[in-house]
Amino acid sequence: MEIKESLRAAYNSLPDSPGVYQYYDKDGEILYVGKAKNLKKRVSSYFQKNHEYGKIHMLVKRIEKINFIVVQTEWDALLLENSLIKKHQPHYNVMLKDDKTYPWICIKKEPYPRIFSTRKVIKDGSEYFGPYASGRMMHAMLEFVSKLYPLRNCNLNLTEENIQKKKFKKCLEYHLGNCKGPCEALQTKADYDESIAQIRLIIKGNIQGAIRYLKGEIEAHASKLEFEKAHELKEKLDMMERYQSKSMVVSPTIDNVDVFSIIIDEKCGYVNYLKVMNGAIVQSHTIELSKKLDETPEDLLLLGIAELRQRFESQSPEIIIPFDTEAEVPNAKFFVPQIGDKKRLLELSENNLRYYIKEKEMQESLKSPKTKTEALMEQMKKDLRMKEAPTHIECFDNSNIQGAYPVAAMTVFKDGKPSKRDYRHFNIRTVEGPDDFASMEEVIYRRYKHVLEHNESMPQLIVIDGGKGQLSSAMESLAKLGLTDKVAVIGIAKRLEEIFFPDDPIPIYLDKRSQTLKIIQQIRDEAHRFGITHHRKRRSKGALKSALTEIKGVGEKTTEKLISKFGSTERIKNASLEEITKVVGAKNAQLVKNFLTKSEEQPIS
C-alpha cells in the first residue's frame, strides 16, 4: 500500500529501536497504539504489505499521522502500550474488559499497626498486599489472621506517651477477646510487633514460615514448663495447619512463580493468572482481551502478562507460559514446562479458563431465553451422545396395581419444557397381569405405528422409565417398525438415576447438578404423575361399574351412560333425580337413586 506524503517524514525517521507507535486520523483521534521490538520494521509492515480487505486495510487508509516513543526494552514498550491503550481506548486496539478497582490489605504505618481492607493505596509508608481479585478471599484471610492474632481495630493514637498517661480505657473488643488491650499496656509493643510479623508472613503466602515459628515457640515454652502458653500456641498451630490443608497446595518445591495460560476464540482472548508462593496458589484471576485486528496468541498473552503483573505488582522471577516467546521481562525468565508439577500448574490454569468461559456462556444464556434453550439442547446432545439436539422428547411410564387396570402414560417436552397438549395415555390391551416389559413393548409399538401412519413428526429422543428390561422391550417394538437407528432411546432407572443405552450393559451416571439429568428427571416424573392420575380414574370407574351392575334392572348400557356422564359414585349421589333421569330415563334413575341412598353409609368409592 502506497504511503501518504503526509506520513513520509515520520515514516523515514523511525529508528531500529524498541518503542511504541501511535496512529492518528485526520481529526487527531488516536486510531491505534502498538508496541515493537524494532519500530522501523514493525511500522513498515503496515505499508509494505497489500492489505486488500479487512480491518487492517481500513486502519491504514485512515492513518494521517504517526507518533512514536522510543524505550529501552521490549518489555518497557509492552507496559507503555498497555498504559496508553487503557488511557485512550483506541478504536482498533485490543480492549481490556476488566478494569475494576480491587481491594488491598493494608498494614497501617502507626505505633500499633491496624490491619484492614481498602481500595485506596496511599503513599504514607503503610504496607499494602494485593490487590485481591476476590473480595471473599481477602475477607477470609483477614478473618483467619484475626483469629490467630487478635489486634486492635480502633482509631486511637496509641503513642507510648499517651499509653503511659493512661488516656485510654479498654473497650468491649478486649472483653470479647478480639484485642489484647495495648491501649492500657496490657500487651507489650514487642509482642504486638511479633504478631504483625507473623501476619505479614501469612499474607505473603509464607504460611510455612509462620508454622515453623509457632513450632519453635511451643517447644520453647514447653521446655520452660509454661504448658498453658504452649497449649495456646498449639491451638493456633492447629488452626494454621487446617487453613493450609484447605488451600490449593500444588508442590512445596515451587515458590514465587507466576503462571499464565490463554484461550482464544473468534472475538476474545482469555488470559488466566495464577500466583504461587511456597507451593500454594495465593492469587487467581482471569481477564478478557477483546480482539480488534489480527492479533496473534503471543500478542494477546504478552499484553495479559504485562497487565496482570503490573496490576498485582508481581516480582516473581519465573513465569510459566504455554508456548515459547522471544519477549524478555526484566529480572524474570519465561519457562514452558513439558512434564511434572509445573506442567500440572499450567493445566490447572487452563482449566480455570475453561470454567470461566463456561460460566460466562451460562450467564449470557440467562439473558436470552432462546440462547439458553439452544445451550441446554447442545449440552443434552453432548451428554447423551446424540447426533442431533433433543428439541422433541417423549417419555413413557407404566402404571398398574397387581396387574389391575394396566395403563401407560406418555409425556412430551419441546425445547426443554412440557408440551401438555401432546401428552397421551394408553389402556393396555394385549397384556394379562403385571408385565411391565410386555406393556412397554405394546405401548411403544402402538405409539410409533400411529406416528408413521399419520406422518407425524418423530421425537429426537425417547425416554423409557425403567432399566435394561423395559429399554430392550421398547427397542424390540422400534425394530419391528424399522425405527432402530432413526431415533435416540435411553432408559432411566429410579434407584440410582442410572442412564442406560441400547446394547450397552454399563450405564452412565450424570452429575446430579447436570441440567441434562434434571430435564430427564422432570419428564420422567411428569410421566409418572400423568400415568398415576389416569390409573386412578380407571380404578374409580371400574369400582363404580362393578357397583352399578349389582342394581337389579340396570343393564350394561345404562351403566356406561352413567359412568360417561358423572364419572364417580359421589357425583351420581350428589346429582338430583331430574339430572339422572335426563341421562337414563325415569325408571332407571329411580332404581339408581334408591340403591345409592340405601348404601350411603358404606360408600362404594
Protein architecture, described:
The chain folds into 5 domains: 5-93, GIY-YIG endonuclease (3-Layer(aba) Sandwich), CATH 3.40.1440.10; 104-246, no CATH class; 257-362, Nucleotidyltransferase, domain 5 (2-Layer Sandwich); 381-536, UvrC, RNAse H endonuclease domain (Nucleotidyltransferase, domain 5, 2-Layer Sandwich); 549-598, 5' to 3' exonuclease, C-terminal subdomain (DNA polymerase, domain 1). The longest helix is centred in the C-terminal third of the chain and has 34 residues, at 515-548. The termini are far apart. The model is unreliable at 540-545 and 599-605 (pLDDT under 50). The chain has helices spanning 5-12, 39-48, 54-62, 74-88, 135-148, 160-164, 172-175, 189-203, 207-223, 227-246, 297-311, 340-367, 369-383, 436-453, 468-480, 515-548, 556-566, 569-574, 577-584, 586-598; strands at residues 19-24, 30-36, 65-70, 95-96, 104-107, 115-118, 127-129, 257-264, 268-277, 280-290, 318-320, 333-335, 392-401, 404-414, 417-418, 424-427, 461-465, 488-493, 498-501, 504-508. Strands 13, 14, 15, 16, 17, 18, 19 and 20 form an 8-stranded mixed β-sheet that branches. The chain contains 20 helices and 20 strands. With 605 residues, it is of the alpha+beta class. The radius of gyration is 38 Å and the shape is extended. Helix 4 (74-88) crosses helix 11, helix 8 (189-203) packs antiparallel against helix 9 (207-223) and helix 14 (436-453) packs parallel to helix 15 (468-480).
